[in-house]
Write a structure and sequence with these properties.
233 residues; globular; 78% helix; mainly alpha
Length: 233
């Protein structure tokens, strides 16, 4: 399975996730279960992108530009279709994850900053309310650190997902009280979020078709399209 196929799987899952909120009036549905496949694959491809890019600055700048370009479409979608409060879109998370990898790669062999800076970038993602927050930066970082040890990478990713959902269950229980339905929903979401590691383990290291800007362009455009359909309905 090459990078192009992984990217298509992630994009299709993302469309299910986002359109599900439109179809089901902002409520969680099985569309969102499918959508859990998307982010881990995008996170993995940031780690792969860092390994293969020859122009890190251009890569980082490109992510930064699309983070800015995508923010208004993301806010329109999140506020009106989902009903969420203010957050920063996924490109900010991907950028912070890329910077975490860069810091680790350049500083780890020299001093402890190679670990502290990625942790600080994860905390920053949480503080600025970037999509997926600390967890998002963490799994990008883990995909890079364990890139040469597939099963360790898979285990560390699964552990990160379980910890993230354990915290979500704790927070939900604290807010709404003990509810078996909360456990069931988050349990299924947790399994669906771990599932894309199967596709990642099948990755053959090949690029496939050249689709460098496919996700960059598709992300804001599909959010605008969903928002446009929302207005029509």
């Amino acid at each position: 399975m090459d990078a192009f196929v992984l990217k298509i799987i992630a994009i299709v899952a993302m469309v299910f996730d986002h359109s599900g909120y439109l179809i089901f009036n902002g409520q969680l549905s099985w569309f969102n279960y499918i959508g859990r496949l998307a982010f881990p694959i995008f996170a993995f491809q940031i780690a792969e992108g860092y390994i293969h890019t020859r122009y890190f600055k251009k890569y980082a700048i490109r992510l930064g530009i699309f983070a800015i370009v995508s923010q208004v479409p993301f806010m329109l979608f999140a506020h009106y279709v989902v009903g969420d409060s203010f957050e920063l879109n996924i490109f900010f998370t991907l950028l912070l994850g890329l910077l975490a990898i860069y810091a680790y790669d350049k500083l780890f062999v020299h001093n402890i900053l190679g670990i502290l800076i990625p942790i600080c970038l994860g905390i920053l993602a949480a503080l600025i309310k970037a999509d997926y927050g600390f967890y998002g930066v963490a799994i990008i970082f883990l995909f890079y650190v364990f890139r040469n040890h597939k099963y360790t990478m898979a285990a560390s990713f699964a552990l990160a997902v379980i910890i993230d959902y354990a915290y979500k269950i704790y927070a939900a229980a604290a807010m709404y009280g003990q509810n078996i339905m909360i456990y069931k929903i988050y349990g299924v979401l947790c399994v669906c979020t771990i599932a894309p590691i199967l596709f990642i383990l099948l990755y053959n290291g090949k690029k496939g078709r050249d689709t460098k800007h496919l996700f960059y362009l598709f992300y804001p455009l599909h959010l605008l399209l969903i928002y446009g359909i929302y207005l029509l309905l």
